[in-house]
Amino acid sequence: MRAALYARVSTEDQAKEGFSLEAQIDKLRSYCDARGWQVAGEYIDDGYSGRDEARPAYSRMMEEREAWDTILVLKMDRIHRNSRNFMEMMDRLRSWEREFTSMQESLDTGTAMGRFVMDIIQRIAQLESEQIAERVYIGMQQKAKSGQGHLGSPPPYGYRYEGGELVVNPEQAPVVQEIYRRYLHGDPLQWIAVDLTRRLAGRSWSIWSVRYLLQNPVYAGYTYWDGILTEGEHEPLVSAHDYAQVLIYFIERTRADSSRRRLEELLSDIRATIGPEQHIGYEAVTNEV
Q: Closest by alpha carbon to 175, among 155, 195, 190, 161?
């Protein structure tokens, strides 16, 4: 068995007994001697965190995988401190038909027991990932229902973030308002996209980017996430009436049932916030989506 010896210390590990690079490498060499393994190479990362995948020796070891059969470490946290990164590494090793061995955990994926333990570790990591996703989803859902703050996405064109809140971008906002105005007056999406690309440097517009902008309720002062529509705290760039009319035009021209149904549900939610006593309507236009 050809073993790639991997040792790592971060800044905070430097003062800890037993974590020195020399101590790690000595123990790894002794382990290879006891098992009759050949040392194929020694890879040492000095001063790098286990949460950082961009480690020079670690990267070189992976590139030189044809020279070894297994990675040998003193402890599992020497190779990765993040369970997700660790399991991604294990997936790569499996695809390369390479093994992983940790001395102190007595983990050797070249044995049946080692593979069994690794399967348990993988299931625990998956559970941890799913639990984190559930907590994030619940938090995002509550935030979407309250309409307060942004939901982690980049600011939509026409806005920027200040102190975690959406504020109007004075250079982009007029473009957004122009797009709505032109579409409501009958300009096809392609005309709008071509004209904006020609006039505005630094951004290429397409039918899809114009359509996305026109269908995004954020411009009418709402927040929308996972089917939840709430009135936001940011300044709208277009009126709710104009936005609702834009949705009507898209619904009339949308053939796909799923897309049409989504737009109809969104329009229903918008109308509920406007109130039945207020009229939504424009004369027919000739634009094509």
A: 195
Summarize the chain as % helix, strand, coil (round to 5).
Answer: 50, 15, 35
Which tokens is 101 given? 């061995």
Q: Is domain 2-126 in CATH 3.40.50.2300, yes or no?
A: no
Does this model's pTM top 0.70? My answer is no
10 is a catalytic site residue = yes
- Fold type of domain 159-274: Hect, E3 ligase catalytic domain fold (3.90.1750)
The answer to whether 24 and 7 are in contact (CB under 8 A) is yes
Residue with tokens 């939901």, as numbered in its chain: 151
Per-domain residue ranges of the chain: 2-126, 159-274
Tell me: the pLDDT tens digits for 85-120? 887 888 899 899 999 988 887 777 777 777 777 777
Q: Which residues contact 7 (CB under 8 A, 6 or more apart)?
A: 21, 24, 25, 28, 42, 43, 44, 45, 73, 74, 78
List the catalytic residue out of 10, 49, 83, 239. 10
Please report, for residues 2, 125, 209, the alpha-carbon distance to residue 153 in angstroms, rounded to integers and kept in the order given: 46, 26, 16
